[in-house]
User: Fold these one by one.
Assistant:
Number 1:
Amino acid sequence: MAHHNGPRKKTRYKFKKDLRKRGIPPVTSVIQSFEIGQRVHVVVEPSVQKGMPHRRFHGKTGTVIGQRGRAWLLEVRDGDSVKQVIARPQHLKAQKV
């Protein structure tokens, strides 16, 4: 039988974009930067596969704790535990204050 357990399984509707928002994201989403301690939302950009966090963290809010190359290191609560997530800036949105 075929292998059905890829990293994007069960994401048919979760990662779907609106009709008018399809295509590559603007450059401003790539060059955005964050402060350490800043709160950010994990919103997966399905057209960019590099640096994509696990589907479990889509829609969660975390705190920036560092940077790893072009990606950002986040602390995200997952149930009772706190997990570290590495994601590129295309998949992050700053929380409005």
Number 2:
Amino acid sequence: MQDIPREQSLIEYPSAFPIKVMGAHVPGFLEAIVEIALRFDPAFAPDSVEQRPSKAGNYLGLTITVTATSRDQLDALYRELSGHPMVKIVL
């Protein structure tokens, strides 16, 4: 992947970067997402995860805020989250 010159990037690194992850409200979903976040940001605070169940309770929306250190890190994190079988969507 071609690097975007620093002056053209919309994100300044390092920075706190929120990511929304949605999936079925099933046991282990939160823990799986926290485990992934910790692999990409060892300083990630699991107790900082914001949780929002859907109205019917079938889905769970999570907001994780990681310390973004590079575009490559964010791209890899998005790929891993998106590829997880419990995840429906990543924003």
